[in-house]
Amino acid sequence: MSRKKFGRLLQKYLRGECTPAEKAFVEHWYGLLETETGASGQELDTDELENRLWSQIQRKMPKDEPGRIIPLGTNRFRWIGIAASLLLIGWWYVAHQQNDTSVSVGSPITLNRADLIERTNASASPLVVALEDGSTVKLAAHSSLRFPKRFTTEERTVYLTGDAFFSVAKMPSRPFYVHAGNVVTKVLGTSFFVRSQSDTKQVRVDVVTGRVAVYQNAPQKQTTSNGVVLSPNQTVTFFDEEQHFVTGLVEAPQVIRTAEIEKKPISFQFDDTPLSEVLTRLERAYGIDIEVENESQNNCPLTADLTNQSLYTQLDIICAALKSTYEVQGTTILVTGKGCGD
């Protein structure tokens, strides 16, 4: 086994993703290290732990004939240790070749925070943090982000305290996780806000592009039933004391920049246009469901230029012209009023 392969194996072990054979292999060498040197995984960062373990493997493996167990002097216990090491290497290799499926198991090695980089924004202006995968995080004032120097090949995980805007590089095979308080936000490639309040323990997620899954923090990052999936212009707030999520719409919905809309922008100029067509254009532009309480409203004509107006201003103008009202109900907008002939 090469040093590079051993490094990857150790990273899997520290994430709790090893197979039983891989787990036994690493724990054998870790146990020998702790017994002989008194070194504890809690005192070492990832690089130092890897160096110590690899050096020990190099020292204890016989160099004369690969694969052959050679007794060293009269030290019976050392001979047994070498034999066990060789058996474990063979066991790990066969298991790894036959089945590369990872099994989540607990890890007795607890690393200190030296394996994570922490950036804190102590200024009044946003601080842009560039991650190694191409993603960027815009940290708000008095916020901090902890992240690894290099993400694993399976996933990308960061830890947020405070508020930040994330622009995540799209990598479907490597999900991106944001831990904030008791909430985890999982994405594949999108942009969104995460706002966490340490005093109330509330966490809010606003989606700008793409889709995200937001759920309560659980072991092994498995989505629990207490969670939601958000689309652009949708938001969710997690209330820690009540242990539940409340969904809604963001404060200022933006037109979703799809390839179709970029090629042919949606017109917000209406000339005697039925309300049903007006609302359909708004739904396409913002990705938000808009319903009418009274179906006879659908035929009411509207003449107006709503270009360069925010969504809620557009709705104000529409409702003023048609003597209607609207309200946000969760992630849906409900328009209420009488029909044109009423």
TrEMBL record:
Domain (Protein FecR C-terminal): residue spans on this chain: 268-335
Span of domain FecR protein: 125-212
GO molecular function, one term: sigma factor antagonist activity
Database matches in InterPro entries: FecR (IPR006860), FecR_C (IPR032508), Ferrdict_sens_TM (IPR012373)
Membrane-spanning parts: none
Record protein name field: FecR domain-containing protein
Species in which this protein is naturally found: Spirosoma validum
Lineage start: Bacteria, Pseudomonadati, Bacteroidota, Cytophagia, Cytophagales
